[in-house]
Amino acid sequence: MIIRSLALFDRFKCAGSACKDTCCVRDKLVLDNKTYFEYQRVIAKGDAFGRRMVASISERNGVASFRMRDNGECPFLMRNGLCELYVRLGPERICETCRKFPTFAKEYGNYREIGCSFSCPEVLRLVLTHPENFQIRVRENDTEPVTFDNLNAKLLPLIYPVRDRFLEIAQDKRNTLRKTATVLLKLADEVQSVIDRKAYDELASLIAPFEAGDPMGGITGEEPDAAVREVLFEKLLKLHTKLEYKKPENAVRIAAAYKTVRSESFEERRARELDFAWYMNHRVYEYRKWLFYLLYRDLLDVVFDGKFYSRVRFAVLSTLCLFEFGSLEWKSRDKQFTPQNQEEVFRSYAREVDDNPKNVARLYKKLNGSAYALPKLILALSNPIKKPVDGATPAEPLAEPLEEPVEETAAETVDTAPAETTDEAKAETPAE
Ligand code: SF4
């Protein structure tokens, strides 16, 4: 089996009782059979702890799960933030879900893909403090391939290099973030068309132009339309107010963000986005990390259901939404937005939206509507916002260079722009 993982996560270490948002709070925690069998042996002793285990585990249709507390906490989460099962029974008797979190592993025939969930604050801390691109490590072992009845075995080897190309595009700092989004969406549309026609042999020709070193792969944007962008983002935010939130404060925060956007004039909104883009000039990599995360985690699932474009669209639009949420947080925090603030924004989005299948299903369905049709998305993304607003101060760069300067045409470049890769931080043209 060929195993691929992200090298950065070798450094992961659970914060344990110091975790600021423990993963021991969730809707449901299903026990794997092996762990449940172990627990039954503990229960059989009949002592007080065994009796408490009986009261804390429910079984339905042969599936055992913990009875979570009313606030969603695991019944074995102690006040000091430690796991009572871990402390009493040892790490080998923790259920599989808890033992593996935040790691996820997905299998596709002879391939296993390993990553870490962005809903863990420690994972995000690692990601946000390492600006360099994700490195994928590949190794092989003797494990037999996993067989799936519904896996498209013909598509798998051909879509693999395509998915890898998407990951490279997501991390390619030669393009601005918006150009990256444009390329990903347009290319994904072409890939989807090939998949729909089952003309899988054509996939290689779609990514060939990138192999010649062109970061855009010959793909171009469209004439800009500022109004399309504003309407689209307002709709996207409104859509997020309709989702289900476990923590009431997150629902309140999203509703407040939408209210702010609604109360802003067109100019105010544009100025905010512009100022924030300038402020985040050195930290565009944070958004590329999110984009990469979703593409890495989800894109290969196309071999089960044939859906490629919708996954790329979700990755791109959620990334742009996070940018919008970040700019609203920045505004509400007196124009400050630290990597810790970003960690909170990413984590609450990961937990509340991305980890909730109901919310994801709703978003996928809505994003399929005509309001988010590809031509509109491209018009919105192609629209260059260029000039840093007077008085905007970029956040202090970290020690390492984050994004290499991009070579732009003379008309687009501003002397003062440091290491910029977003369209937003270049000189605005009055014509816009
Ligand atoms: S969320 Fe992450 S850091 Fe926190 S307890 Fe869980 S695995 Fe550890």
Structure characterization notes:
The radius of gyration is 23 Å and the shape is globular. The protein has a domain at 226-425. The chain is built from 17 helices and six strands. The N and C termini lie far apart (53 Å). The chain has helices spanning 33-44, 48-56, 84-89, 96-100, 121-128, 155-171, 177-196, 203-211, 226-241, 248-263, 266-279, 285-298, 302-305, 309-332, 339-354, 357-367, 374-382; strands at 2-6, 57-60, 63-66, 103-108, 111-116, 136-140. 34% of the residues are buried. The protein is an alpha+beta fold and 432 residues long. It has a four-stranded mixed beta sheet with strand order 4-5-1-6, with helices on one face. α6 (155-171) packs parallel to α8. It binds iron/sulfur cluster. The site of iron/sulfur cluster has 10 residues, from α5.
Topology of this protein?
Elements: E1 2-6, H1 33-44, H2 48-56, E2 57-60, E3 63-66, H3 84-89, H4 96-100, E4 103-108, E5 111-116, H5 121-128, E6 136-140, H6 155-171, H7 177-196, H8 203-211, H9 226-241, H10 248-263, H11 266-279, H12 285-298, H13 302-305, H14 309-332, H15 339-354, H16 357-367, H17 374-382
Parallel strand pairs: 1-5
Antiparallel strand pairs: 1-6, 2-3, 4-5
Helix pairs in contact: 1-2, 5-15, 6-7, 6-8, 6-12, 7-14, 7-17, 9-10, 9-17, 11-14, 12-14, 14-15
Bound molecules: iron/sulfur cluster (SF4).
Iron/sulfur cluster binds next to α5.
